[in-house]
Structures are given as structure tokens and as C-alpha cells.
Amino acid sequence: MSQSPIRLENLGHSMVEAGHVKATLAPLTYQFEAGKFHVVTGPSGAGKTTLLSLLSLFVRATSGDLFWGEESLTELSHHDAAAWRRRHLGLIFQTSRLVGMMTAEEHIAMVARVRGQPEARAEGLRLLDSLQIGDKKRHRPFALSGGEKQRVAIAQALCARPSVLLADEPTASLDRTNAIAVAGTLRTYASDMDSVVVCVTHDHSVIDRADTVLHLQKA
Ligand SMILES: Nc1ncnc2c1ncn2[C@@H]1O[C@H](COP(=O)(O)OP(=O)(O)O)[C@@H](O)[C@H]1O
Ligand SMILES: [Mg+2]
């Protein structure tokens, strides 16, 4: 059976600033299919980060609806939204957010523990190998390059095999070779796991490898 898509129906976000309503994301109708590597691009201030915050249920939409298959995500309570995130969501940020005193291997083990998925540990170690940092699994962040830290963060996000993976400019601190490798990893993950992968980026080495490209415009 194929996995659920993420569907946006007039999903929008606005806030009141100095007495004026300001649109942070203009209402958007779109479908992110499972098994595909989706890229979101557009000028600064177009609402790309806002869109990822809405998709991760950290921020509530001020208009429209968000569905995961038949399930409405806009209607989940805070408690259920947190449970949905723990169970289904993986996140990758612009720069890796690693803990200074923990080794690469311990970062993976922590995900397995927090998610209650012991098998994620072996999967994470396999990912470190396939991302060519298996020999650095006992290193702490200070002993890793920017590209290596980002690969640890990717292994951390993928090891629990999330059904929905969101990445915000994951290659911003990487050189072209590393950026292409990251794009390839995300694309392969989407098709192998039949997951929804959404990646915000300006990087052409990522955009060129996307299955779909959504251009956001400033509201
Ligand atoms: N907390 C906030 N308060 C006020 N305005 C915000 C806030 N967060 C984002 N915005 C505004 O919302 C718009 C979209 O922001 P953002 O989603 O960060 O865009 P992008 O990631 O595409 O650069 C911008 O105009 C930004 O200034
Ligand atoms: Mg942004």
C-alpha cells in the first residue's frame, strides 16, 4: 500500500504586526505526494520557513486545512500533534544542531531511545556508513567538519524512517560535492521508503535533483 500524501487546502498563515495583518504565507493549495523528493524555493520572505513550521505542526495555520491522507492535521490537539511528530516526522535544519559532548553514535542512540524504536540504532549506524562517516562514529561535533556534522544530522533524521521528512536549506553550509550527496540521499530516501520529503532550498545542485519544484512568491 502506498503511503499518504500531505495535502494543503488554502493553507495560510498571517500575523498582526503594529496593528496591521501581515501574511507570512499566502493561502496555498498543493499536494506533496509520498515517494517523491519535493523542493520548495522562492525569494527570502516568501514564507518557506513558515510553510515548514506549519507542516511540522509547530505553528498553527490561520486559514485553510492540512491533511495527511484522510486525516486532518489542522484539527489535532497540541498533545496529539506532538505524538504525530514523534511518530512520523523527521527534521533537518540549515546547520546541524548537535550536542557538543555527544559522539555521532550517541546522537543516533538518543533518537532510538526518544522514539522508542531500538531498531533505529542499527539503521543510523548503517546510514553513517553509507554517508561515508562510519569511521567517525566516536567523534564529537568539534572533531567533525561542517559537511560531516550535517551528515550526522541527516542520519539522525532518517534512522527512525519518518513518513514525512522536512529539510530547511540543508546544504547551505556545504560545498557542491557534499550538497549533491545530500540531495541524492534525500531523493533515494523518498523513493525507497515511499515517504514525503520536502526540502526548502536555493541550491541548484538540489533543485536539479527534485521530482517537483514549488516556487513560493512573497504575499
Ligand atoms: N515571528 C514573526 N513575526 C513577524 N513576521 C514574521 C515572523 N516570522 C516570519 N515573519 C515574516 O513572514 C514572512 C515569511 O517569512 P519566512 O517564512 O521566514 O520566509 P522565508 O523562509 O521564505 O525567507 C516574512 O515577511 C517574515 O518577515
Ligand atoms: Mg527561511
Notable features of this structure?
219 residues, Rossmann fold, five-stranded parallel β-sheet, four-stranded antiparallel β-sheet, 9 strands, 26% strand, binds magnesium ion
Overview of this structure, please?
- The chain has 219 residues and is of the alpha/beta class.
- It has one domain (34-60, 77-214): Rossmann fold (3-Layer(aba) Sandwich).
- It is built from seven helices and nine strands; from the N terminus they run E-E-E-H-E-E-H-E-H-H-H-E-H-E-H-E.
- The strands form two sheets. It has a five-stranded parallel sheet, with helices on both faces. It has a four-stranded antiparallel sheet with strand order 2-1-4-5.
- Helix 6 links the parallel strand 7 and strand 8.
- Magnesium ion binds next to helix 1.
- Adenosine-5'-diphosphate binds at residues 15, 17, 24, 44-50.
CATH topology: Rossmann fold
Mean pLDDT: 93
Broad shape: globular
CATH homologous superfamily classification: P-loop containing nucleotide triphosphate hydrolases
Annotation, overall tally of beta strands? 9
**Computed structural class:** alpha/beta
Strand arrangement across the biggest beta sheet: 6-7-8-3-9
In terms of DSSP E residues, the strand content is: 25-35%
Uncertain parts: none
State the CATH architecture.
3-Layer(aba) Sandwich
The total tally of domains equals 1
CATH class: Alpha Beta
How many helices? The count is 7
The helicity comes to 25-40%
Small molecules bound in the structure, each named once: adenosine-5'-diphosphate, magnesium ion
N to C succession of SSEs: EEEHEEHEHHHEHEHE
